[in-house]
Queue: 3 jobs
Job 1
Amino acid sequence: MSKENPRDRKRLLKRLKNRYRLVLMNDTTFDERFSAYLTPINVIAGVVFIFLVITAVVVGTIVFSPLKEYIPGYSDTQTRLNAVSAAVKADSLEQAQAQYVQYFASLQRVLNNDLEESEIAELSSDSIQRTYEGLDFSVSEEDKRLRAEVEAQEQYALSTGSPYSAESIGLPGIFFFTPVRGVVTASFDFTSGHLGIDLATEEGEPVNAVYDGTIVMASFTSDGGNVIQIQHPNNLISVYKHNAVLLKKVGDQVKSGQSIAISGNTGEFSDGPHLHFELWYNGTPLNPQEFIAFSS
């Protein structure tokens, strides 16, 4: 290969240093408006400088503005934070899972009687038994009072029948209003756990209070649907289940025959529009048909 001639290098440098005059003039009058002396080196340096400035402006705009989110593969700050949070939660879940796996493995060994003799001896060692030393197993005064209250309330426990009459509950000659217009489709049966009667009726029929009292419950239950309960005088309670809408709230005073709900078909134990009606006295369910005249 031929070596570069020094004269050619000098000749190139001389050309780069040659001065050229840039002139702007009026094409009609030939008046000179602007002139400047330039060299190829200055032109190259100026172009490089302008390129660097434009590059810095573009990069700065992308980095310090939301435009960077539109770059493929670049995630925003919230996404990165969510990723970090997910990683921390995943790590915690892995640790919890490992603890559960170890716990269930140990439990399975205990159930299968696979413990070694050394492990059994360790479990029955004094170091574990000492944790029970000093405990007081005597009956406290609070426990004695609680037991006395429970024993005193046993007289209100459910019995196997309805031994009460209108005279025995202190309401002789009282007229009970029919709760809803309908036909009895299921009677009171204590042995099967049906502690009331079912009255088949059209959906939308008004449900009425059987006697004066105060609303003590008006809420939704999974089995009874919309349930409303009235506390009457002499510890008598009436219960109305499977209603479509409740018209009264807890604390409302109602009169005999006043509408308290709209019949419906709510609750898991309902298979059609009807009212499940119950009467309770001192914790004992009563047969409503012994106190109220129903259509059958």
Job 2
Amino acid sequence: MQGFVRAAVVCCGLLAATHLLSYAQTPDPNSSATSAESPAPVQPPAPIMNTDQGRVGAGVKVSLYGIGGEVAVRVTHHTNVRAGFNAISYSRNFDKDGISYAGQLNFKTFEAHYDYFPWAKSFHISPGVLVYAADPITATASAPAGSHFTLGGVDYYSSAADPITGTGKIKFNQAAPTVTVGWGNLVSRKEGKHFTVPFEVGVAFQGSPKASLSLAGTACDSTGTFCQNAATDPTIQSNIVSEQTKVNNSMSFFKVYPIISIGFGYKF
């Protein structure tokens, strides 16, 4: 009987050991599934959209200074430098105090601006400078033989033998500071935007006008007996200065000249 019990215990022990060994060798379904999976691919970072491409823009425009063109270069994300030119020519004949003038308006200007875009969009504030490349207003003067004219409020008559002729001009400061505000950016900060329609308003501080009048020929009194050379007689020259002062006073509002322009531009 004791041998039978001993044999039963040994058998139970062998069965338990066999069961534990088989359990240890059985693979874990969860761990095998995990090891069989390949690692997830690494996704590349999303590309960053560049909204600041393009460094140069060019355009054409029409303004109170005529027809012109300009080029802008990006300096920073908020600033450009811009330079351009303008030209306009206009002729008109008129009479003043008995003297006939063939006038010529001839604006030829160069300009430079520093454009500041507070929000890096289209609105900008632009200090700058305007330079006149020629005398803006010129005229030729004449008084037909025997005609009446006045200089500085004094009456004269143009000599029949040597009638009065001359030239005149009106100048402003050659370089004038400017300040403008506008909408439109020749070098747009927006990706893919190449075309723009810039609009700008402002003023040029060109200073008070400076008129000059040079006369030649002979000026006589009403009887025609007392005549003087208009180019050399001190009294006539003094009266010419008075005439120049009258012209300057009548044009004093031109010391601040308005700037209004609109154009079409392209960013490269």
Job 3
Amino acid sequence: MPGEFDFIDWVRRQQSSSKTVLQPAGDDLAILKWSADDLLLVGVDQVLDGVHFDSSVHEPQAIGRKAMNRNLSDCAAMACLPAAAVISFALPHGVGVDFAKQLYQGIRQAGDKFDCPIIGGDTGSWNGKLAITITILGKSAGIEPVCRSRAKIGDQIYVTGPLGGSILRRNMEFEPRIHLARQLAKNFRITAMIDLSDGISRDLPDICKGGTVGAVIHANAVPIHADVSKLPDHADPLSHALHDGEDYELLFTSPDHIPPNLATPIGQITDGNAVEIEISNGQRLPLQAKGWEHPL
């Protein structure tokens, strides 16, 4: 019966070298050629069965695509280009090699869209649920990376798309905003940026903490996705837009006017450390963090 080593041999046969990847998966370490005038960015992200996906419902290729796309979205958050990825599977006993291959193929499909090859990794099996960990390597490629810590008082706060209701579809199938992030960073002064994985109410405070600033969001300016109206509890659409998370749009700040076809202004960076929302009558209330947080 095919086992782990058959799967690893199969993975090795999927690899190919390139100008950047001199030695892909198959040795103890991959070998990359890196330009002296470029910056290397490195990140890691993990997805867990029962938290980020449901393996009893979602197809393995869709799970793999989401795992990779989350990492690619982190590249978008810093306006860098993905260069390569290393993956690790903790597979439940008994899922079989075909299941593992489909996971790999989903990861590769997502990476291929952005010329991001898989250059190595590790597999194991256990009595627990499926866990996938991906380490992403990115390159600045002529554009200075955008951090989340440089927002300035007076900057406008923008989002790149409508929010809320991602649980219906977009939490599994989404397009990382890499090209849009690069366009924004190249043509405008982007002072801070983050991808909306946990929701505005949790991700915006991260920007504020990094820049030791506050923020005010205008309730009537927040774009709400049409999917919200399809939710059973759709009576408060704004709450979904602020807290649902896993939209994977970009939240960023800039002193510049950003064209409406690229992003929507939803508020301003303010003095102090309060993160607030301004409701219809002009009253400001604290923006309570209700987005996703892993319980410990």
